[in-house]
Amino acid sequence: MTKVNSEYGWADVPCTGTQWSARRENARYCIDELQEQGKIDTDDLETLVASIVNTCAAKPIRFFPDLITREMAPSLYGPELPGLRIYVPAEGALDAVKSEGEGSVPSYKSLDGGTHCFYADIHPKSPDQLMDPENAASHFSSSLQQVLDEIEECVQVANAKIDEEHSWIEDDVRTLLTRRRDRRRAFLEAVEPLKIPLHSETMIDIPIEQAALTYEDVQTLGPGHKNFKLSDQIADAVIQSIRSFGTALERSPDTADKLLNLHEETIRDILLMVLNANWRGQATGETFNGDGKTDIVLRHEDRNAIIVECKIWGGQGIFNEALTQLFSYNVWSDTRAAILLIIRLAEPALAVKTAQEEIRKHPNLIRVEIEHAEGGSYIMRSPKDPARAIHLELLPIVIPKKPKPAPKTGKPKKITADKSVQDHHD
């Protein structure tokens, strides 16, 4: 089911549901959210379109005859004449079978564990047929094939409608994204000659009175054992602070370049100060701590609620080392993590794409929440405890390397002492 977003008003749409209008509205809400985060100003518009459509559009229906199972069916003729019930696993927007099918359509249901399946009952025609094994087997076999043929026919009709709606959403998203991006670019081009500095909304606020970090006791594992998570509101705000910090660096490339030239850990140390200036622990006063050269962690009772990795892009190998380091920590349920990926290349899009590919093929990946040209959000599994999830944000920032000044040429002038000074010594 689509997660409800209280800020943007996302509608509940089950994964099996059609709700075409609600899905289109969700796509618009998704665009609103990305625009609010400043992520629609990109030349790689098709990647953004594909990500939104994948998140919001109904999924095509697939069914799996090779995984069919059976059980005894309720008899139509009393307990002495049993029937056969078959289950055919399926996935996708199964409601489209009912809304688009004509005549007899297969039934489907949800099973434990979030799986879905078509099901049908097959009954013998008479007790005499049941007592004739060859005749009964032929009847069940032909009836089963008829059920599978009906399912396939209905799925084809339903998928045609799903594909049609998929195209509608894709066209709507592409049109709206293009219009908003182009208008934003035109606006920025129009106001640039005014030379007015940007308002402080992109700066990192450091309040005099620190905000408190609050933990939610989400589950009791047994006597004396608790499992904690950072409240979603606070966790989202911390991640947004990190994202804003990266934006501020991108908009001050000269300063950021100087900081990186001082030492690789300088950016991490400044972010650490910003986070500790904005947030403090409740009661016990937990704070963000440096861990290693590039990591920032927020610990609570010997486990980590937030992990931040500041990493300069140096290729797949170094990025995978960052992932390995991140997954080495002990975590609580739903730990939040972020990789602030500093890219100093002339073509940063390739680095972002490679980083996304490395996360997608990582064995700890559970699912991709969203991906776009400027990062992504992923749900990962903790290798130390598969029952614990890590919500990972990829936050790339681009800080180009400034070219080194060319060495001076020509013969240096001879430096002579000031005449008045010479006279004095004489």
Structure description:
With 426 residues, the protein is an alpha+beta fold. The chain folds into two domains: 1-199, no CATH class; 207-398, no CATH class. 40% of the residues lie in helices and 26% in strands. The protein is built from eleven helices and 16 strands. It has helices at residues 20-36, 45-56, 95-100, 127-131, 133-191, 232-250, 253-262, 266-278, 316-326, 348-360, 419-425; strands at residues 62-63, 69-73, 83-91, 107-110, 116-122, 211-213, 215-222, 225-230, 279-281, 288-291, 295-300, 303-312, 331-343, 365-372, 375-382, 385-398. A seven-stranded mixed beta sheet has the order 10-11-12-13-16-15-14, sandwiched between helices. Strands 1, 2, 3, 4 and 5 form a five-stranded antiparallel beta sheet that branches. It is elongated, with a radius of gyration of 30 Å. Mean pLDDT is 77; it is low at 1-9, 200-210, 217-225, 281-286 and 414-426.
Quick overview of this protein structure:
The chain is of the alpha+beta class and 426 residues long. It is 40% helix and 26% strand.
Structural class: alpha+beta
Number of domains as seen in the coordinates:
2
Shape call: elongated
| Total DSSP helices | 11
Overall pLDDT, averaged? Answer: 77
Largest sheet properties: 7 strands, mixed
Oligomer: single chain
How many β-strand stretches? 16
CA radius of gyration: 30 Å
CA(first)-CA(last) distance? 93 Å
Q: What is the succession of H and E elements? A: HHEEEHEEHHEEEHHHEEEEHEHEEEH
User: Largest beta sheet: what is the strand line-up?
Assistant: 10-11-12-13-16-15-14
Q: What fraction of residues sit in β-strands?
A: 25-35%
**What's the helical proportion of residues?**
40-55%
| Unreliable stretches | 1-9, 200-210, 217-225, 281-286, 414-426
